[in-house]
């Protein structure tokens, strides 16, 4: 590479542009319309993740290296044989929102068009399937009506179940800029007081799962206060009366009780034309108090929000996983959309419902039919004309006629033997799926498992065939972000070893299975052209998704393609903008649909486990886990608990805690926070077998799903928590990674020169020769490495340091009490450092260097500024603002992700004692 390459960040659905310089330094793209020169901590650390040393580089078959031809022929043969013996529904693909649109398109064409099954689902099922289902129910098609400019133009932004400060940081920065510019108000609806809630004008800590009750209450309030736009509804929507009726009872039970009274026909307040005769909810409508009680919030606070929403024309409701990952996720989406339809606030500047997607290409997957219940190009299984059009376009007589299995059902079918061959691409379901232990059982029992990935994962460990995939920066294609903007991802480096793009792997298998013409593409541009042409095929305005203007793009045009928003139909030269302000919904009559959303409260027993993201990690950490800077923000998976819940369970701050659900248990460090609601705990989703002995929290998450979208509820598993007896504590630093078997509970933290492991003994420390063997296994040293050792058996202390070629190769500190361990910040820089003879005696003290504020846990990943450094600076320099911190330390001046934490530190340090 001799020139800078413009590409897109591979993480979240914001879809930021980045520029890669010839020396592989990576900066924000100032010209990309999605981020306009901003990046978050993850994007800013991308260069640190380009290390190839842990990549998969060669295909393996049954654990042995193989060449590509043999590996792909085996895949094709086993799929063909399985289909011949058991039918097309006996095989499946499970793909990913990390796939580029071209990868997705080819996989979907192979499964739905030629194998003849719809058993292809994607990890986007875990991310935004409820938004897809909600959009289809309300608009007739999976379409996000708004654009990012709305974030600048809104007067009120309502964030529902969306910790944008951590999960979509660049949009959060954009919102903060809008607040500074013209005072946009922000309301956060979230059970947790997140970093986003900390910055909001109003935080409503609603009870988990009560979103439908709240938005039903809002719909009733809008109606009662005369804020419904009857003229817009009359022209552009239908079903208002039914939705209002459903919204006018707090729970399903109430609704059934009230059904008889609705028949009395009392006239409601508001437009008579909107409520069918004889179905008036007058007299029994929800009140602020009943809604507040159901949501567990202060009625005054709720009324304040309802009033803000009612009085603000430019209002956006932004939602993500707190809404989608729910057993009532689709109803939550429609309850939100109902309020926007009722006020006609959709598709106008600064107004509308806005789903932000988790993954970089969840939206692109939706465009090509990556979900088991969709066909390509937003065509529908339930529409015979769509099926006929797709069959003709693809020349695919075997086109699947009915939807396939959604993710949870799909792995259940693997477990019970209905699916006998599965190909998993760019995702790690053995860690990320709910009931992940059951997924592991399923894969272990499956006769044929293929995994394509960039890195070894918990899932690839269970595969018969492992195919090394080209990753970010190594392949070309497109992605679509949350505002329908399609951007190019461009290659700027060679894939390591023999790694290949996923689309090429699927295309080759398609050819080997006998469909040479249908899978003949030679470039990703050729795949994109076909995808674009299909979007316009038999469309005639029936489907909003249409990018047929790009159907003839040549190789040079594809290489130079600039980001654009769909729709972009043939003949159009300007990108898509806001949609639906004047109706024109892709339904049979052009009208949007209000959807009745009766409220079903969550059953409550014990604690409720909520899982989600933390600021500096991405999914199962295959990429972000390579960056010591990103690891330093939260080095160990925690269990956030309210102090009162912890006290009731006998759990103290930092205690190793067993979290138990019906699916099993995991061990996590308790972190006591007043920002948690009573009765609810939170654990991050990221850690896997490769980073912690306890493995992923997904193992204990239940697999309850939304009945419409099939999206699992990852935020409401009944759980209990108890402290774990720890017999000894330890710190281990060594050059090598890898699991430590089950010697003790461990968490691995990558550091600059190797790995640090935090250890917790679940059994007493062994003695005598057993102790030496125990230490030796942990240190994993080359033969003949020199050891220094000191032990005090009476106090249960062991300290070992190993020096090789004059540098510290590894060290191990074990102590009965955690206070007997050296300071991590002082220890980490010792690994790999030269050890002069004069300092050898200091090795076993674990303090060859002084701990400095520069070596502790970092709050600002961009500039490596530690929490202690910020605290120190605020206290000694009497700093009163984030801006002052930025001037002194630079923290918070780049991506801004750490600003909420900086504000918290300022408040905390400056708060008078008592
Ligand atoms: Fe990447 Fe961060 Fe932008 Fe998301 S917000 S696309 S993670 S840089």
Secondary structure elements and their pairing?
Layout: E1 5-8, E2 17-20, E3 26-28, H1 41-44, E4 60-61, E5 64-65, H2 68-86, E6 91-95, H3 101-115, E7 120-122, H4 129-139, H5 149-153, E8 156-160, H6 164-167, H7 169-182, E9 185-189, H8 195-199, E10 202-204, H9 211-224, H10 230-236, E11 237-238, H11 240-247, H12 252-262, H13 288-295, H14 299-311, E12 315-319, H15 321-324, H16 329-343, E13 352-355, H17 362-368, H18 384-394, H19 407-415, E14 421-425, H20 429-432, H21 436-445, E15 448-453, E16 465-468, E17 477-480, E18 485-489, H22 502-512, H23 524-536, H24 555-560, E19 564-565, E20 592-593, E21 607-612, H25 628-631, E22 638-641, H26 643-649, E23 656-661, E24 664-672, E25 680-684, E26 717-723, E27 729-734, E28 745-751, E29 754-760, H27 768-779, E30 786-792, E31 797-804, E32 807-815, H28 824-827, H29 840-843, E33 858-860, E34 865-866, H30 867-877, H31 882-889, H32 899-910
Parallel strand pairs: 6-7, 6-14, 8-9, 8-12, 9-10, 11-20, 12-13, 14-15, 15-16, 21-25, 22-24
Antiparallel strand pairs: 1-2, 2-3, 4-5, 4-16, 17-18, 18-19, 21-26, 23-24, 23-26, 27-29, 27-32, 28-29, 30-31, 31-32, 33-34
Helix pairs in contact: 2-22, 3-17, 3-22, 3-23, 4-16, 9-13, 9-16, 13-14, 19-21, 30-32
Iron/sulfur cluster (SF4) is lined by residues 9, 11-12, 14-16, 35, 39-40, 42-43, 168-170.
What's the short story on this structure?
With 914 residues, this protein is an alpha/beta fold.
Task: Write structural notes for this entry.
It is a single chain. With 914 residues, the protein is of the alpha/beta class. 32% of the residues lie in helices and 18% in strands. The protein is built from 32 helices and 34 strands. Strands 5-4-16-15-14-6-7 form a seven-stranded mixed β-sheet, sandwiched between helices. It has a six-stranded mixed β-sheet with strand order 22-24-23-26-21-25. The longest helix has 19 residues, at 68-86. It is globular and about 85 Å long. The N and C termini lie far apart (59 Å). Bound molecules: iron/sulfur cluster. Iron/sulfur cluster binds at residues 9, 11-12, 14-16, 35, 39-40, 42-43, 168-170.
């Amino acid at each position: 590479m001799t020139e800078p390459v413009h590409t897109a960040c591979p993480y979240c659905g914001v879809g930021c542009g980045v520029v890669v310089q010839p020396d592989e330094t990576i900066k924000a793209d100032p010209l990309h319309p999605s981020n306009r020169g901003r990046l978050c901590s993850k994007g800013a650390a991308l260069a640190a993740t380009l290390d190839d040393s842990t990549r998969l580089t060669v295909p393996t078959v049954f654990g042995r290296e193989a060449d590509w031809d043999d590996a792909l022929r085996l895949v094709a043969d086993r799929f063909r044989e399985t289909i011949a013996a058991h039918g097309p529904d006996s095989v499946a693909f499970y793909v990913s929102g990390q796939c580029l649109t071209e990868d997705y398109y080819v996989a979907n064409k192979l499964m739905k068009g030629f194998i003849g099954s719809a058993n292809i689902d994607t990890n986007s099922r875990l991310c935004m399937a409820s938004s897809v289902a909600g959009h289809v129910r309300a608009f007739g098609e999976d379409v996000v009506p708004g654009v990012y400019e709305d974030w600048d133009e809104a007067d009120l932004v309502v964030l529902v179940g969306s910790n944008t400060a951590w999960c979509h940081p660049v949009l959060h920065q954009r919102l903060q800029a809008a607040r500074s510019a013209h005072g946009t108000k922000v309301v956060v609806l979230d059970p947790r007081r997140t970093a986003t809630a900390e910055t909001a004008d109003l935080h409503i800590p609603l009870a988990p799962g009560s979103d439908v009750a709240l938005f039903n209450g809002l719909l009733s309030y809008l109606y009662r206060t005369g804020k419904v736009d009857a003229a817009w509804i009359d022209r552009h929507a239908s079903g208002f009366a039914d939705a209002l009726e459903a919204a006018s009872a707090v729970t399903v039970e109430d609704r059934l009780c009230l059904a008889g009274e609705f028949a009395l026909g009392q006239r409601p307040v508001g437009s008579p034309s909107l409520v069918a005769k004889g179905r008036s909810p007058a007299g029994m409508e929800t009140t602020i108090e009943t809604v507040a009680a159901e949501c567990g919030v202060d009625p005054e606070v709720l009324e304040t929000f309802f009033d803000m929403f009612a009085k603000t024309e430019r209002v956006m409701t932004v939602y993500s996983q707190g809404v989608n990952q729910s057993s009532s996720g689709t109803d939550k989406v429609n309850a939100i959309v109902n309020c926007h339809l009722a006020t006609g606030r959709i598709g106008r500047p600064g107004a509308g419902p806005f789903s932000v997607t988790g993954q970089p290409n969840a939206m692109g997957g939706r465009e090509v039919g990556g979900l088991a219940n969709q066909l390509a190009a937003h065509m529908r299984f339930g529409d015979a004309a769509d099926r006929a059009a797709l069959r003709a376009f693809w020349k695919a007589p075997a086109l699947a006629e009915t939807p396939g299995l959604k993710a949870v059902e799909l792995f259940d079918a693997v477990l019970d033997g209905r699916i006998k061959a599965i190909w998993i691409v760019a995702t790690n379901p053995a860690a990320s799926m709910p009931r992940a232990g059951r997924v592991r059982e399923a894969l272990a029992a499956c006769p044929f498992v293929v995994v394509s990935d960039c890195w070894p994962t918990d899932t690839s460990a269970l595969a018969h065939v492992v195919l090394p995939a080209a990753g970010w920066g190594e392949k070309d294609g497109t992605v679509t972000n949350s505002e329908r903007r399609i951007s190019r991802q461009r290659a700027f480096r060679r894939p390591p070893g023999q790694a290949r793009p996923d689309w090429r792997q699927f295309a080759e298998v398609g050819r080997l299975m006998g469909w040479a013409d249908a899978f003949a593409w030679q470039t990703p541009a050729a795949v994109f052209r076909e995808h674009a042409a299909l979007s316009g095929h038999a469309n005639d305005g029936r489907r909003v998704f249409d990018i047929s203007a790009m159907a003839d793009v040549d190789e040079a045009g594809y290489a130079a393609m600039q980001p654009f928003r769909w729709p972009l139909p043939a003949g159009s030269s300007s990108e898509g903008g806001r949609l639906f302000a004047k109706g024109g919904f892709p339904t049979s009559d052009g009208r949007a649909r209000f959807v009745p959303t009766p409220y079903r409260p969550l059953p409550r027993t014990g604690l409720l486990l909520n899982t989600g993201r933390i600021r500096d990690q991405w999914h199962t950490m295959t990429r972000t886990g390579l960056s010591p800077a990103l690891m330093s923000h939260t080095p160990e998976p925690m269990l956030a608990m309210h102090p009162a819940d912890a006290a009731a369970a006998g759990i103290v701050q930092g205690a190793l805690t067993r979290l138990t659900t019906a699916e099993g248990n995991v061990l996590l460090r308790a972190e006591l926070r007043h920002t948690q609601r009573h009765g609810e705990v939170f654990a991050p989703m990221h850690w896997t077998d490769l980073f912690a002995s306890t493995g992923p929290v997904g193992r204990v998450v239940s697999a309850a799903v939304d009945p419409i979208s099939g999206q699992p509820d990852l935020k409401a598993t009944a759980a209990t928590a108890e402290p774990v007896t720890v017999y000894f504590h330890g710190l281990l630093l060594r050059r090598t990674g890898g699991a430590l078997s089950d010697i003790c509970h461990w968490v691995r933290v990558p550091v600059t020169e190797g790995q640090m492991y935090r250890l917790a003994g679940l059994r007493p420390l062994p003695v005598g020769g057993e102790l030496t063997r125990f230490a030796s296994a942990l240190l994993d040293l080359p033969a003949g490495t020199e050891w220094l050792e000191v032990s005090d058996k009476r106090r249960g202390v062991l300290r070992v340091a190993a020096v090789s070629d004059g540098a510290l190769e590894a060290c191990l500190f074990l102590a009965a009490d955690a206070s007997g361990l050296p300071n991590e910040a002082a220890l980490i820089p010792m690994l790999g450092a030269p050890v002069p003879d004069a300092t050898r005696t200091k090795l076993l003290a674990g303090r060859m260097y002084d701990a400095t504020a520069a070596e502790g846990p970092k709050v600002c990943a961009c500039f490596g500024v530690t929490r202690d450094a910020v605290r120190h600076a605020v206290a000694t320099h009497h700093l009163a603002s984030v801006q002052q911190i930025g001037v002194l330390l630079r923290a918070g001046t780049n991506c801004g992700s750490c600003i909420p934490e900086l504000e918290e530190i300022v408040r905390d340090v400056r708060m008078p004692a008592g």
